[in-house]
Write a structure and sequence with these properties.
14 helices; mainly alpha; single chain; about 0% strand; two-stranded antiparallel ribbon
């Protein structure tokens, strides 16, 4: 017995691993370097598609670049000051807030109702579910173009239909004035966003245990109380995911507003994203459009952070 103890002690003292001891772990740096060959293609893609363009945009936002594209040197934060001091900026920021909040809130509310309806069994449910995918599968540009022509006051089929059912006394130029064009753009954005949001909430509904709803019924809860007390809290993660992706997509959306309001003079129907496009296309100011793009990116980061902090999508449902 004593010889065994002495042997074990001696082995430990000399630095040799004891019999039955777990193998020594490699350092974190070794493991990281071993993973590099497997992650290198993805890292190169991320650098080329995301990091380099973002870094170059930030660099351009601090330069004075002529209309011809000649770099005349650094101007520091002057481009940011110039953009934010423009008189149309307050209205554009307000439009952006209305645009994002309206589209996301209306989309989520309608999608909750659609998902609840599609979660029930009824004849033809499969076909209805497939039909809802169509606006998502189609190109946003194509869908918006259909609405642009449909709303035309001279030959638009939507305008004609509204006149025939006596909603309008005469054809109306929805795309000719800032306010109706902007409101029409919100409706189109909701229409395009519904499929993804509805299916995300449907997936959340499928994950709710049936025994929770049964327990609520046993406790005497009606349909409304069960929905707001059991179903809706359990949809927190699904609603948070759908809302978060919609916030990012809608905030950065260009095609709908460009097609619906692009021919309207001035900036009364612009958001920060369409204003970036106008700075680049109409004024050919790469430096100013880069500065506003950086501001856009920071706004999105702040909005997403605040949303996650307030909503807390991963909070346990009690």
């Amino acid at each position: 017995m004593s010889s065994t103890i002495e042997t074990t002690t001696a082995g430990t003292a000399t630095g040799r691993p004891r019999r039955g001891a777990p193998p020594a772990r490699h350092g974190n740096s070794t493991t990281l370097w071993n993973a590099v060959p497997w992650t290198l293609p993805a890292l190169i893609l991320i650098f080329g598609v995301v990091l380099f363009p973002a870094g170059y945009m930030i660099f351009n936002s601090t330069r004075k670049i002529s209309v011809a594209g000649v770099d005349h040197g650094s101007v520091g934060p002057q481009n940011y000051v110039t953009v934010l001091s423009r008189p149309e900026i307050p209205g554009i920021l307000l439009n952006t807030l209305i645009w994002v909040v309206s589209v996301v809130v209306i989309t989520v509310v309608i999608s909750l109702a659609l998902a609840q309806f599609l979660d029930k069994s009824f004849p033809g449910r499969r076909w209805v579910r497939m039909a809802i995918i169509v606006p998502w599968a189609a190109s946003v540009v194509m869908t918006t173009t259909v609405f642009v022509y449909g709303l035309d006051p001279f030959y638009g089929i939507i305008n004609k239909f509204l006149v025939d059912i006596h909603v309008l006394a005469q054809p109306f130029g929805f795309t000719k004035e800032p306010v109706p064009a902007f409101l029409s753009s919100i409706a189109i954005a909701v229409f395009v966003s519904l499929p993804f949001t509805t299916y995300t909430i449907l997936a959340g509904l499928a994950g709710i245990p049936g025994d929770m709803l049964e327990a609520a019924k046993v406790d005497g809860a009606g349909a409304v109380r069960s929905y707001f007390g059991v179903t809706l809290p359990n949809l927190r993660a699904a609603i948070a995911l759908a809302s978060l992706i919609n916030i990012i997509n809608v905030f950065n959306s260009l095609p709908i507003l460009k097609l619906m309001t692009g021919a309207i003079p001035g900036y009364k129907a612009d958001t920060t994203t369409t204003y970036v496009f106008k700075l680049l296309q109409n004024e050919q100011r790469i430096d100013l459009s880069s500065a506003l793009s950086v501001i856009n990116f920071l706004i999105v980061l702040v909005v997403v952070a605040l949303y996650l902090w307030i909503v807390k999508p991963m909070k346990e449902v009690s």
